[in-house]
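> call design_seq(struct)
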């Protein structure tokens, strides 16, 4: 066979593979996107419920901070066991189970009457949701090679930012319009109406998500063979180590540190942004929701824009460093504009843009370093350790706010966390599997 014939054959194979990955993405990603969108809404809506819930129940802001963070105690404790169970019983069944139980518990938050019941339901919600995100990330490794996962993961994770865009206006509208219906407070309607969709999606996931490409009835036999072969070759390039090896891996701990820096800034922002806007003089819940959507919109745009160049050959480390430093700049300057809401929102948009843009690019690293059971364990461990700040951040912000009367110190802490993330990334060796051009899908 001549050189021209070989080149034509390779081009045909490349085009065929790209078409196959696009088909898989069209099938899986929209559904998983909606699932993650609802998951994030059920996390974020506590920040809007707080606007009226605390006064209705006579709770303090410190109680709110502890309750908001209690979610992450349950989440962190059960993250690794949940992801290992997913590997054993199948992603479709386990992801469905996670969504059904978290939806029921999210809706049950409407029955909170005291600090104790608030802490309990938030803890149980964390237990219920544990394993969902790392489970999906692991699930995607069975359908896409490392070369495709940056863009696919970015599309999926854009749900975080989009949820921030939609949860504000919707939650504000519910609080403003439904507070006098059926003898329920607005925040009770908020938890009920935003919790039940997860139950419906969980039931749907059980039959909609195929356990593996080999049994996907929406693929042809040839497509199943080609996809299984490509995934097997991709997995062979990563490491498969024991669970104890994952726990003691320096790379896993470094990745957890980076992800934890993201989490410190992210969760403090999520749970307190509505309050920041409220303290700036905006009083109507719907207006608060519309204003808080602006930084989240910036985050969604950056996630999509960063995914392409951030996942290409040699760009992962550079992209993560640039994005982290941009975010640190936004956090660090935002206290200087505290009295000027438009400028503050612009700076917070820069902070969230850099932070949100980092997340899909970051997940190139662990999914390229491990495979098999070690991949499930590594992803879960990184997510669990990275979510530890989810407990500390809301409480510390509440405590500092109570002591100082402002959000300046937390903003500087967020800037420091993102700077630390940039330094940690610069010290991390990029895996060789990423040193190649990754095609877009």
């Amino acid at each position: 066979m001549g050189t021209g014939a070989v080149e034509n054959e390779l081009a045909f194979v490349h085009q065929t593979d790209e078409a196959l990955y696009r088909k898989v993405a069209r099938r899986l990603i929209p559904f998983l996107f909606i699932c993650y969108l609802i998951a994030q809404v059920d996390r974020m809506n506590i920040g809007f419920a707080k606007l009226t819930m605390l006064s209705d129940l006579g709770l303090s802001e410190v109680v709110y901070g502890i309750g908001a963070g209690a979610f992450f105690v349950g989440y962190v404790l059960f993250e690794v066991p949940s992801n290992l169970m997913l590997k054993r019983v199948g992603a479709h069944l386990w992801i469905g189970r996670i969504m059904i139980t978290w939806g029921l518990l999210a809706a049950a938050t409407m029955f909170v009457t005291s600090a104790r019941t608030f802490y309990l339901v938030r803890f149980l919600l964390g237990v219920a949701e544990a394993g969902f995100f790392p489970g999906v990330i692991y699930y995607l490794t069975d359908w896409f090679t490392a070369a495709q996962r940056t863009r696919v993961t970015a599309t999926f994770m854009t749900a975080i930012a989009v949820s921030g865009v939609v949860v504000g206006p919707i939650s504000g509208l519910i609080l403003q319009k439904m507070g006098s219906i059926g003898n329920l407070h607005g925040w009770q309607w908020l938890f009920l109406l935003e919790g039940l969709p997860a139950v419906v999606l969980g039931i749907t996931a059980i039959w909609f998500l195929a356990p593996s490409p080999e049994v996907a009835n929406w693929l042809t036999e040839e497509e199943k063979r080609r996809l299984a072969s490509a995934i097997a070759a991709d997995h062979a390039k990563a490491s498969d180590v024991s669970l104890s090896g994952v726990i003691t891996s320096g790379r896993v701990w470094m990745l957890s540190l980076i992800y934890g820096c993201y989490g410190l800034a992210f969760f403090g922002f999520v749970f307190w942004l509505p309050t920041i806007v409220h303290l700036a003089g905006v009083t109507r819940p719907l207006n608060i929701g519309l204003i808080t959507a602006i930084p989240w919109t910036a985050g969604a745009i950056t996630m999509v824009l960063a995914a392409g160049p951030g996942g290409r050959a040699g760009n992962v480390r550079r992209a993560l460093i640039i994005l982290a430093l941009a975010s640190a700049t936004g956090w660090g300057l935002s206290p200087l504009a505290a009295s000027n809401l438009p400028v503050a929102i612009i700076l917070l948009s820069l902070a969230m843009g850099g932070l949100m843009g980092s997340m899909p690019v970051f997940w190139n690293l662990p999914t390229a370093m491990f495979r098999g059971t070690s991949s499930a364990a590594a992803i879960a461990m990184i997510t669990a350790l990275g979510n530890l700040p989810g407990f500390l951040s809301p409480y510390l912000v509440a405590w500092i706010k109570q002591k100082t009367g402002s959000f300046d110190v937390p903003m500087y802490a967020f800037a420091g966390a993102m700077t630390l993330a940039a330094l940690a990334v610069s010290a991390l060796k990029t895996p060789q599997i990423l040193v190649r051009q990754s095609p877009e899908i």
